[in-house]
TrEMBL record, chain B:
Regions that span the bilayer: 36-57, 99-120, 141-157, 184-210, 231-251, 292-317
UniProt cross-references to PROSITE patterns, sorted A to Z: ABC_TM1
GO cellular component, one term: plasma membrane
Stretch list, region Disordered: 1-21
Membrane topology, record value: Multi-pass membrane protein
GO biological process: transmembrane transport
Domain annotation ABC transmembrane type-1: ranges: 95-313
Keywords, comma-separated and alphabetical: Cell membrane, Membrane, Transmembrane, Transmembrane helix, Transport
A Pfam family hit: BPD_transp_1
Record-given protein name: Sugar ABC transporter permease
Transmembrane helix keyword on record: yes
Length: 575, 325
C-alpha cells in the first residue's frame, strides 16, 4: 500500500511539471530515432566496399607513361581498395601506421582503407557476409572455414589469368606450391604469405642468460639435464622465477614442444587440431594411444606437480607471458614462436646489462636419441596466411598487380630494409640488395618490427637469404638476435610438414562434427593430463579418452585424413 | 425548426457513447508525456525482438549464411539440429551445469541483495551507509572482461594476491592454482556474480524499505519488539510484493546461467566439464564454427524451457497473491 501511495505522489508531481517532462520525453524519443539512423549511416560509410582505383583519388596522376601492353603497372595510376584482417589478434590500422605503406602512399599512389575486426573476427565476417558488405581484400588463415565458405559461394576472384601477366608469384612460389593451394575447382584463389622451400621454423627453447650464469652454466642437452636444471632454479629462486615457462598451453606451445623431445621425428603438429594424429608407416593413428604422448605427458605432469612449470599454463594470457619474460622471471622458455617474445624480452633485458637477456638453445632430446632428428616445430612450404580478393573489388587485376609487386624483391626489400637509397642501393649478381655504408642494423630491426603486421604476401624464398646476407656483413655483437638464432638454431632444427597441412574435413559434414568433438576432447584431456594428481591417472584419463573418441567416430576421421595425406604426398612427389 | 432540432439530436452522438470515446482520446492526450516515454521502448522491442523473430525458422533448416535474409531458399531438415544437440556427447553435462549454476545463482544471488538492503537500512551512520552503498554498486558498471581480468589476477598462482595473502598468513605453503581446480569453480563464479551485482540489485529493495510506514516501527518499539523481530514482522512483509515480482522475473531467467562471466573466468579447458552451459556451448560450437542453424535450435530449446519455468513461477506467485499476469 505504502509503495502505491508513494508512486501516486510521484505521478502527481509529474503532472505539475508537465511541459518540461513533455520536452524531455520528446528529446528522448528523437535521440532514439536519430541514434538508429546515424548508426546505420556510419556502418555504410565504413563497411561498404570502397570504390577502387581511378575514380577514388582525383588528381595527382604521376604516371604519364601509359603501359604499352594491357599489363597494369603498379604506381602508374592511383589505386585504392579496402583490406580486412580476418584475425582476432591483429587489425590493419591504416596507411600511416607502417613505414612501408606510408612510403607507398607517398610514392606509389596507393591507398588501402582499413576494415577492422577489433577482436571479434568471426562476428565481423558474419556481419559482412550477411549484409553483403565484403571488403576488397581479405587476409587470413589459409585453412579458415570462412574463406572456404566464400569460395563455395563464388565470392572470390580466381588468379589464374593474372599469373603469367604478373610473374613474381609464379616465379618465386613455383608451380608445384601453387598447385597445392588450388581449390577443388582447380583454380587458384589464394595468394600465399611466407612461401619458401627452406625451413622457417621458429619453435624452440630460450634460456635466461643471467640465471644460467648464476647457476654455473651447466650442460643443457638432454631432458635429464633440463629437469636437473629446473630443480636447481626452483631451489635457488623459489617462487620468484618460473623454471619452465610454457606460454599459452591451450595452443600447445611449450607443453607440445616437449612431446617432440621424446621421439625422433615426432611432430609438434600431431597435437594440433588440424592433424590430431600420429603418422605410423603410411597410416595416421590415434594420439590418445600413442606411447610417446603418454610418456611426454607424464614428464609434463611431473614438472607441473613439482611446480617446475607455469601453474597458470592453461589460463594465462599473452600479456602475462610477455611480462614474465620481460622482467626476467623465466629460466627456460619454450614456445612455438620462441624468437618472437624472447626477442622482445632480450632487447629489454640487455639494455641494462649487455650480458643479460636470452639465448636460444638446440632443442632438448631424451637421452639416447639423435639430437638432429628432434624437431620442435615444422615449416609449411606454403607459409601461413593467404590474401584473397573478393568479387566486391571493382578492379581485381590492379589489386593483384599490387600484391605481385609487393611480393617481388623490390616490395620485399622495402618492407625489410626500407626504401632504396639509405640502407641499400642496387642489387648484386644474385639479385640481393647491396647494403650501403650507412646501413644501420638498429634502424633495420625497427623497420622490420614496425612492418611486421603489413607483410601480407611475404616472399620468404627471397628475403630469408637476403636477411642472412645482411647479417653476414655485421660484426658479431651487432648481429640481429632474431636472425642469428633463426639461422643457427630454429631453422636447422625444423622439419617440412607441408604434407600434414590442411587435413580438415568440411565443418558442416559428419566428419566435421567428429573433428569438433575430438578436438574439444583432446584439449580437455591435454589440460587434465598436464594437471593430473598422479602419474597413474594419466593412463586412466587417456584410456577413457580413446574410448570416447572412438564413440565419436575418430577412426573414420583418421581414415579420411590418411587418404588426404597420401594424396598430398603424391602432389609433392614424396611417394 | 423542429426538424433541425431533431437532426441535431440524431446526428449528435448518443449521450452514452460520446463521453467514453472522448475520454479515451482525451486520456491518451493527457498522458502524452508518459506515452512518449513508452513508445520508443515498444518500437525498439518490436523492431529488434519481433521482426527478426521469423529467423527461428532456421532452426529447422540447413541455413546458408550467403542467403542472408532470404531464408526460405534454404532446405527444410526438420528436427535434425535438435537431435544433433540431444545426441552431443556432453549434452547431459551441459544441462546439468546449466541447471546447477543457474539454481545456485538464484538461491544465493537472489536473497543476497535483500539481506544487504536490510542491513543497510539498519545503519544509522549516514556517511558510512552512503559509502557502502556506492562501493557495492560500482562493480555493476564494470564489464565482465574487466571483472574477469581482476578475478584472474587475484587468483593467479603466479603472484596472485590471494595466494600471497594466504601464504603470508601461513595458511598454505605452495600457491594454489584456483582457476584450474574443478571443485572451486562454482564457488568462484557465484561469489564473483554476487559481488558484482549485489549493490545494484539492492537499490530497489532499499527504495521499497524506505516506503514502509515509520509509525509501525514506533508502535513495535513501544510494544518492545527487538530489531530482528521488526525486520521479520514489519520490513519483510511490507516489501514482500516487490520481492515476489522480482522473484518471478528471476525465475524466467533461470536457464540463463550466464555467458560472458563463464566464458571469461573458465578459460582453462580443464574446467569445461563443470563450466560448459548452454549459452557457452552455443557460442563455441554454433557461432564460432558458423553452425547457425544448430545454434538457433539450441537457443530455441532453451527459450521453450524458460517460458515453461516462467509460467510455473507465475502460477505459484499467483497463489501467493501477487503475480505478473
Amino acid at each position: 500500500m505504502n509503495i502505491n501511495i508513494q508512486f501516486l505522489k510521484g505521478v502527481n508531481a509529474m503532472r505539475k511539471r508537465k511541459p518540461l517532462l513533455l520536452i524531455v520525453s520528446a528529446v528522448l524519443l528523437l535521440t532514439t530515432v536519430l541514434a538508429a539512423c546515424s548508426n546505420s549511416n556510419t556502418n555504410n560509410s565504413q563497411e561498404s566496399p570502397s570504390p577502387s582505383s581511378a575514380s577514388a583519388t582525383p588528381g595527382n596522376t604521376g604516371g604519364d607513361t601509359k603501359p604499352v601492353s594491357d599489363t597494369w603497372v603498379f604506381g602508374s595510376e592511383p589505386l585504392e581498395f579496402s583490406l580486412y584482417f580476418h584475425y582476432g589478434w591483429v587489425d590493419y590500422k591504416g596507411m600511416d601506421d607502417y613505414p612501408a605503406t606510408k612510403w607507398l602512399k607517398e610514392n606509389k599512389q596507393l591507398n588501402i582503407t582499413p576494415i577492422q575486426a577489433n577482436g571479434s573476427h568471426s562476428e565481423k565476417m558474419t556481419t559482412m557476409i550477411s549484409g553483403n558488405m565484403l571488403p576488397d581484400v581479405i587476409w587470413g588463415n589459409r585453412f579458415d572455414a570462412d574463406i572456404d565458405r566464400l569460395y563455395e559461394a563464388g565470392q572470390l576472384v580466381a588468379f589464374d589469368e593474372y599469373l603469367e601477366k604478373y610473374p613474381n608469384l609464379l616465379k618465386w612460389a613455383g608451380k608445384e606450391k601453387l598447385d597445392l593451394l588450388r581449390s577443388p575447382d582447380g583454380k587458384l584463389y589464394k595468394f600465399p604469405n611466407w612461401y619458401t622451400n627452406s625451413s622457417t621454423n621458429t619453435a624452440g627453447y630460450a634460456i635466461n642468460k643471467k640465471i644460467y650464469r648464476e647457476l654455473g652454466s651447466p650442460k643443457l642437452e638432454t631432458l635429464d639435464d633440463l629437469y636437473a636444471y629446473l630443480v636447481k632454479v626452483k631451489e635457488k629462486y623459489g617462487d620468484q622465477v618460473i623454471p619452465f615457462e610454457t606460454d599459452r598451453a591451450e595452443d600447445g606451445q611449450g607443453v607440445a614442444i616437449l612431446y617432440t623431445a621424446f621421439k625422433e621425428g615426432a611432430l609438434y603438429d600431431s597435437l594440433g587440431k588440424q592433424l590430431l594424429a600420429v603418422p605410423n608407416g603410411d597410416k595416421l593413428t590415434s594420439v590418445f594411444t600413442d606411447p610417446t604422448f603418454r610418456e611426454s605427458q607424464k614428464f609434463v605432469n611431473k614438472l607441473y606437480r613439482e611446480k617446475l612449470m607455469t601453474q597458470d599454463a592453461f589460463t594465462q594470457t599473452d600479456d602475462m607471458v610477455l611480462e614474465k619474460l620481460m622482467t626476467g622471471r623465466v629460466a627456460v622458455y619454450a614456445s612455438a614462436n620462441v624468437t618472437d617474445k624472447a626477442n622482445k624480452a632480450h632487447l629489454e633485458l640487455s639494455k641494462t646489462n649487455p650480458e643479460d637477456g636470452y639465448f636460444v638453445t638446440w632443442p632438448f632430446h631424451k637421452a639416447g636419441l639423435d639430437k638432429n632428428k628432434i624437431h620442435p616445430g615444422g615449416n609449411d612450404r606454403l607459409g601461413w596466411n593467404v590474401a584473397v580478393i573478393t568479387k566486391a573489388a571493382k578492379d581485381p587485376e590492379k589489386i593483384f598487380a599490387f600484391l605481385d609487386w609487393y611480393t617481388s624483391p623490390e616490395g620485399m626489400n622495402l618492407q625489410f630494409f626500407g626504401p632504396e637509397g639509405k640502407n641499400w642501393k642496387g642489387f648484386d649478381e644474385n639479385g640481393y640488395p647491396i647494403f650501403t655504408e650507412q646501413a644501420d642494423p638498429a634502424e633495420i630491426a625497427q623497420i622490420q618490427t614496425d612492418n611486421l603486421d603489413i607483410m601480407l604476401v611475404g616472399n620468404a624464398a627471397y628475403i630469408d637469404p637476403a636477411k642472412i646476407s645482411f647479417e653476414k656483413t655485421l660484426p658479431e655483437e651487432k648481429k640481429n638476435w632474431q636472425a642469428k638464432y633463426q639461422s643457427e638454431v630454429t631453422w636447422p632444427s625444423g622439419v617440412d610438414i607441408t604434407e600434414y597441412k590442411n587435413l580438415t574435413p568440411p565443418a558442416d559434414s559428419e566428419l566435421g562434427t567428429t573433428q569438433q568433438h575430438v578436438e574439444n576432447l583432446f584439449l580437455q584431456v591435454f589440460a587434465e593430463t598436464t594437471q593430473a594428481k598422479s602419474e597413474a591417472d594419466i593412463d586412466k584419463i587417456l584410456d577413457q579418452a580413446e574410448k570416447d573418441a572412438q564413440s565419436y567416430g575418430y577412426n573414420k576421421l583418421l581414415e579420411w585424413r590418411t587418404e588426404q595425406w597420401q594424396e598430398k604426398r603424391k602432389i609433392l612427389g614424396l611417394e | 425548426m423542429s426538424e433541425a432540432a431533431t437532426r441535431k439530436t440524431i446526428a449528435g452522438p448518443s449521450p452514452q457513447s460520446r463521453p467514453r470515446k472522448k475520454s479515451a482520446l482525451h486520456r491518451l492526450w493527457k498522458q502524452m508525456d508518459v506515452q512518449l516515454m513508452v513508445w520508443p521502448g515498444i518500437l525498439l522491442i518490436f523492431v529488434f525482438s519481433y521482426i527478426p523473430m521469423y529467423g527461428v525458422l532456421t532452426a529447422f533448416m540447413d541455413y546458408n549464411i550467403f542467403t542472408a535474409h532470404r531464408i526460405f531458399e534454404n532446405p527444410w531438415v526438420g528436427f535434425k539440429h535438435f537431435e544433433a544437440f540431444f545426441d552431443a556427447p556432453n549434452f547431459w553435462q551441459i544441462m546439468r551445469n546449466t541447471v546447477v549454476i543457474s539454481l545456485l545463482k538464484f538461491v544465493i544471488g537472489f536473497p543476497a541483495p535483500i539481506i544487504l538492503a536490510l542491513m543497510l537500512n539498519e545503519v544509522r551512520h549516514m556517511v558510512f551507509k552512503r559509502v557502502v552503498q556506492t562501493i557495492t554498486y560500482l562493480p555493476h558498471f564494470m564489464s565482465w572482461v574487466i571483472v574477469g581480468g581482476l578475478v584472474m589476477s587475484l587468483l593467479s598462482a603466479d603472484n596472485g594476491s590471494v595466494n600471497i595473502l594466504l601464504k603470508g598468513v601461513g595458511a598454505i605453503d605452495e600457491p594454489i592454482n584456483f582457476l584450474s581446480i574443478k571443485d572451486y569453480f562454482w564457488t568462484i563464479l557465484i561469489s564473483t556474480n554476487v559481488w558484482k551485482e549485489i549493490g545494484f540489485s539492492s537499490i530497489v529493495y532499499l527504495a521499497a524499505i524506505a516506503g514502509v510506514d515509520q509509525h509501525m516501527y514506533e508502535a513495535a518499539d513501544i510494544d518492545g519488539a527487538s530489531k530482528f523481530k521488526q525486520i521479520y514482522l514489519i520490513t519483510l512483509p511490507s516489501i514482500m510484493p516487490v520481492i515476489i515480482i522480482f522473484m518471478v522475473l528471476a525465475m524466467g531467467n533461470l536457464l540463463n546461467a550466464g555467458f560472458e562471466d563463464i566464458l571469461i573466468i573458465a578459460e582453462n579447458p580443464l574446467l569445461r566439464p563443470v563450466a560448459d552451459v548452454i549459452d557457452v556451448y552455443v557460442y563455441r560450437i554454433g557461432l564460432q564454427n558458423q553452425k547457425y542453424s544448430f545454434a538457433v535450435a539450441v537457443g530455441l530449446f532453451k527459450a521453450v524451457i524458460s517460458v515453461g519455468l516462467l509460467t510455473m513461477a507465475n502460477y505459484l506467485a499467483r497463489r501467493a497473491g501477487s503475480s505478473l499476469w
